[in-house]
Amino acid sequence: MRKVQITETVLRDANQSLMATRLPYSDFKDILSEMDKAGYYSVECWGGATFDSCLRYLGEDPWERLRNIRQNMPNTRLQMLLRGQNLLGYKHYHDDVVEKFVELSIKNGIDVIRIFDALNDFRNIRTAYEAARKYATPNTVVSGCISYTQSPIHTVEKYVEMCKDLKDMGFDTICLKDMAGTMSPYEAEHLIKGIKEEVGDMPIVLHTHCTTGMAYMTITKAIESGVDVVDTATSCFSNGTSQAATETLFYALQQYGIDSGLNEDVINKVNDFFKPVKQKYVDNGTINPKSMATDSQALVYKVPGGMLSNMIANLKDMNAMDKFDEALLEIPSVRKDLGYPPLVTPLSQMVGNQAVVNVLMGERYKQISKEVQNYFKGEYGIAPGPVSKELQDKILGEGNEPIDCRIEDSKRTGKDFEDAKAALGDLCETEEDMMSYICFPDQARKFLEDRKAKRENVAKYTIEEA
Ligand code: CO
Predict the structure, then answer these.
(1) How many other CB atoms are found less than 10 A from the CB of residue 52?
(2) 178 alpha carbon – ligand 1 mean position (Å)
(3) Which of 295, 341, 347, 388 could link 337 by a cystine bridge, Cβ 3.0 to 4.6 Å?
(4) How far does the centroid of ligand 1 lie from the alpha carbon of residue 177, in Å?
(5) CATH of span 297-407
């Protein structure tokens, strides 16, 4: 019997897409031992924005969250999303930092590490890949991930070529990451058949979003074309900017005669558990009804939902909502000038902000953001396609070329560990503390200070009691 397995995303991507990753551990801890019996391929529960959100908004230690999930789900593969050389932050880190981060992720409980680079410049995922291999346990799965986008240069042949590179690097599985939910059923069919032909029995994972309303059709075609794993979210946390619904896909797969490995009772219990959790965040406004709706605009502009809401927020701040349509129209041209980067973090912010600036200034590139300048210098990696020569000359000076090397090759290691320990002093108790600080210094320091104060209060209280 053919198998198509399911990765449940409620704890990470559904949480991130629908409610800006504000779900605290206390809201889902009671369902973990039940989820452990569901028979998922994996549970995506860490990485992406969860790390930042734990420290910044939830007052939680992200490492402790991971260890707690691990303890309550001993039988399930735990999965994380890692932005290659950016880890879970927004800049390129030194290789020794990347290696240590991956080592600690595995040590604290991660099994499946899905690694991507915004530009699909695979030099930026190599260090993370090698670290995952170095510290692998028998359960470790290292998944090479392609940021999917559409443009004149992103042909099926180009994607097949990328998959071949990932296979040659040694990844266990390949994931197609369609963050904007713009992959059509037709494209899914051609892509997956093309990839399967090239990489043989290497498992293919499809990650898409319901943003544009196409996900169920696309997943159906992907299943018919040989996909092995599909990401879904428990139904009350599905649809809109999130993933397709787990139970719905389970039902459809049954009729196909395909084994998903899922236990129907358990996945229904999981959904029942999360219903009131979701309602609480709808009622308090954390979940915006807009994020639960279908928005086909993304099909026209190839813009992920999160990027649109960011742009709207920026324009509102500047009292310039009347420029929204113009800014939206400007995105494709900025993207073309940058050589068609996929619109995923941090490129989505970069392209969106530059489009807004171009429109507000009434002149293209009168003002060029620091990030876009660094992009042209080659600091993010190689642009997917040819960039605007005119803009390159304007930024680099005429005739100058971007640096043709991975930025870390000139500074593979730094003094990050020493610096972090020195900066934190006795606040730093573990390597995990140190790593939190390297990734998010201000937020980590605040968290560690609060932790210390809380302990001192408890100690004081206990002495008084005694
Ligand atoms: Co996603």
Answers:
(1) 17
(2) 7
(3) 388
(4) 7
(5) 1.10.472.90
